[in-house]
Amino acid sequence: TRCEMAEGGRAPSLWERVCAEYEAEQPKFPGVPEPKQGSVSLEAGLLHPSHTEQFGSASAADTVVKELFPTPEAAPVTEPPDPKTCSAKEYIEHYIFPVLLPGIAELLHHVMKKKYHERKRTSFNACDFLTEWLYNNNPKRKDEPFTKFFSIPFVKDWLKDHPRRPVPLSLLLSEEAASIIIQSFWRGYRVRCSDEIQELRQWQKQLREKNNIRETVKQFWAKQEAK
Length: 227
Prior knowledge:
Layout: H1 14-25, H2 42-47, H3 49-54, H4 58-68, H5 88-114, H6 126-136, H7 153-161, H8 169-172, H9 175-192, H10 195-211, H11 213-226
Helix pairs in contact: 4-5, 5-6
């Protein structure tokens, strides 16, 4: 197993333990096993055409979240397993998913609201959003003011040593601002194509070459320094 293959005899990581448990649950014979009743395939949920058509509103996002992450049936309340001795699967189910899944649901709501899913490239960073959401919803920070992503202490310390590349202006502009820039450039181009403007630009070019403005300025400052 992956746990036994840990290099140097070190203790297996959480990811290696998860992979080992997953491999142990796989059937010994080739072939695709039939899905268990009540389970939902994440790949099928993401790639099914009906889900793609539903990505148009926040209510549709709720439907997709419920289908991808079905709510388990009510079960008797039991004490959570010991995080130091429980299996990797139990640790994820009891300590990771209850915290992470609400953040993913909020992430989908935000994407639907801002319509990021309608564009091929955006400035939106899902990891940054989840980091900010998890930090501000930490029970230890209850009643504390909201902190933006770039103001989080550990984020500031990390970015000091690992600065990011600046985001392209094309991703920062809104559709309205981008349309204004494109329209103004096109109007200027159409004006410069007219015969009268071309004649004026040609005359200005000849005037600059004839008068040699750079040499004139150079001589002027030479006379000033000579005084």
